[in-house]
Design a protein that fits this description.
This protein is about 30% helix and about 20% strand. By secondary structure, it is of the alpha/beta class. It has two domains: about 70 residues, no CATH class; about 160 residues, Rossmann fold. The strands form two sheets. It has a seven-stranded mixed beta sheet with strand order 7-6-5-8-9-11-10, sandwiched between helices. α6 links the parallel β6 and β7. α3 crosses α6. The longest helix has 17 residues. The two termini are about 40 Å apart.
Length: about 280
C-alpha cells in the first residue's frame, strides 16, 4: 500500500505525491472502482497499490488513463473483501513495527479476570448467535474484548490509539484480520448501511461536560452502523443517562442498567439500546 494507515486513505498524502511527481512502472492492474496496482521493477520488484475508494475525491478513478495501457489488466474486486484485506494488512504491519520509527517492547498485559467474568455475565443473555456481526469501538489493548472472545464471538474491534492496539496484537489478544486503528467518527466512511447487528464499547469515556460533544460524535457515528442493538458501559450513571438521552433522539429505545459492584471501578453502569422500528 502507498498509504501508511486507514486514516491516510481518506486524504491520500502519498498517492497525491506520486501523481504529482510520477513513478516508474512497467505494467498495471486496474481494480474496478477500487484503485490501481502498479508494478515497479526498482529499487525492488514489487506491486504498489493505490486506492481512492475511501477518499471523497476520486483522484485515481478520474485519472485512470494516466496509469493505463493496452496491456493493463482489469479485474473486479469485492469491496467488503478488499476492506477486510486492508484491515489485516495494516494490523500485521503495525504488529511487526513496519509503520513505526521506534517502538518499545510490548508491555506484558495482566488479565482482570473479575472484570472479564462480570462482562461475560452481562453479555451472555444478549447473544445467541456466535457469527453475529459485531463492532467494538474503543477496544484499547483488548482486555475487555476477551469477554466477547470467551463467548465465542468474533468482533470487529477498533481504537484510535495505535500503540494500545499494537500491544494487544503483540500479546496475541486480538485477531489481526479484525482489528484496526481509526478515529471512530470516521467509521461511516468505510462502512455503509448497517453492517453490524451490534455495536458496543466497554468503558467509553470518562464523559464530562467538556468532552461530551466529542463523545457524542463518536457514539452517534458508531451507532449509525448498528442494525439491532447498542451496548455501552461507563463508570457513572450520569454518563449512561447522557448516552441514553442522545440515543433516544437518534431513534433508539434504551435503558440504563445499574451494574455496580463492590470494587466500583469498571462497567458500573450500562446503556443498552435497541433500534425502534419505523
Amino acid at each position: 500500500m502507498a498509504e501508511e494507515s486507514l486514516q491516510d486513505l481518506l486524504d491520500l498524502p502519498v498517492t497525491r505525491q506520486i501523481m504529482e511527481e510520477g513513478v516508474d512502472w512497467d505494467r498495471s492492474i486496474l481494480l474496478e472502482d477500487i484503485g490501481i496496482a502498479l508494478h515497479l521493477a526498482s529499487p525492488e520488484d514489487f506491486w504498489l497499490l493505490l486506492t481512492d475508494r475511501y477518499c471523497r475525491e476520486r483522484i485515481l478513478m478520474n485519472a485512470a488513463d494516466r496509469f493505463g495501457s493496452e496491456a493493463t489488466k482489469r479485474i473486479m474486486v469485492d469491496e467488503s473483501a478488499f476492506l477486510r484485506a486492508l484491515v489485516e494488512y495494516y494490523a500485521i504491519f503495525m504488529k511487526d513495527e513496519l509503520l513505526c520509527e521506534s517502538c518499545g517492547t510490548a508491555d506484558e498485559l495482566h488479565y482482570a479476570e473479575d472484570r472479564i467474568t462480570r462482562l461475560v455475565d452481562l453479555l451472555k443473555p444478549n447473544f445467541s448467535c456466535s457469527d453475529e456481526p459485531i463492532l467494538e469501538i474503543c477496544c484499547g489493548n483488548g482486555l475487555a474484548t476477551q469477554a466477547l472472545i470467551r463467548l465465542d464471538l468474533d468482533p470487529m474491534a477498533m481504537d484510535s490509539d495505535r500503540c494500545e492496539l499494537c500491544i494487544a496484537l503483540k500479546n496475541g489478544l486480538m485477531n489481526p484480520q479484525r482489528s484496526f486503528v481509526l478515529d471512530a467518527r470516521l467509521l461511516p466512511r468505510y462502512f455503509s448501511g448497517r453492517p453490524f447487528q451490534t455495536v458496543l464499547g466497554f468503558m467509553v469515556g470518562l464523559i464530562d461536560d467538556s468532552n461530551w460533544p466529542l463523545w457524542r460524535e463518536i457514539l452517534l457515528a458508531a451507532a449509525s452502523l448498528a442494525e439491532k442493538r447498542l451496548l455501552f458501559t461507563v463508570y457513572s450513571q450520569k454518563e449512561a443517562d447522557l448516552i441514553a438521552k442522545e440515543m433516544g433522539k437518534a431513534g433508539w429505545r434504551g435503558e440504563v442498567i445499574d451494574n455496580q459492584d463492590s470494587r466500583g471501578i469498571y462497567d458500573q453502569w450500562v446503556y443498552k439500546g435497541s433500534r425502534q422500528a419505523l
